[in-house]
Amino acid sequence: MADSIPHLFQSIQVAPKKHKVDLLRRLNDHCKEILYHAFNPKIKFLLPEGTPPFVFKGTPEPFPTTLYPEVRTFYIFCEGGGANVNQIRREAIFIQMLEKIHPDEAKIVIAMKDKKFHELYDTITYDVVREAFPTMNLPEQEVKKKRPPKKSGGKGRQQKT
User: Fold this and answer.
1) Most distant CA pair in the chain: distance in Å?
2) Tens digit of pLDDT at every position of the chain (161 positions)
3) How far is it, in rounded angstroms, from Cα 38 to Cα 74?
């Protein structure tokens, strides 16, 4: 029986920092695919941001494994994939998938789609994933430079009185 994807990610989340890379490398291909979609900035999802309206219609279980067969359909939701699927149909397929999978798995899929995986599992970061999977060819993250604060020297636009 396959391991539950939420449980696998949770076990990595709570693992000591020195073990995270090794644990990530032991993940199955489905989990690696989720991480690839979640962290690759070149992958653009053609779905609205946020959680769509859906009602869980599956069976609650303590170790959900319903996401495994759905991973292969992720290409439909991405730019360059599922070219023959119109936007309304794409969104309907996404909602149907969310309704079939366990709510914990749905949170992972939504976080992946919105590129907010790090908010769900804050210790599974871009840098850790990049170190664990150099063959994913994740680009080096750009470091955003902070702008120095503007000085208010009394000059500038004067307000009309």
Assistant:
1) 75
2) 468 899 999 999 999 988 999 999 999 999 999 999 999 999 999 999 998 888 887 666 666 667 888 999 999 999 988 778 899 999 999 999 998 888 889 999 999 999 999 999 999 999 999 999 998 888 887 655 556 566 655 555 555 55
3) 11
Look-up: residue for tokens 């804050």? 122
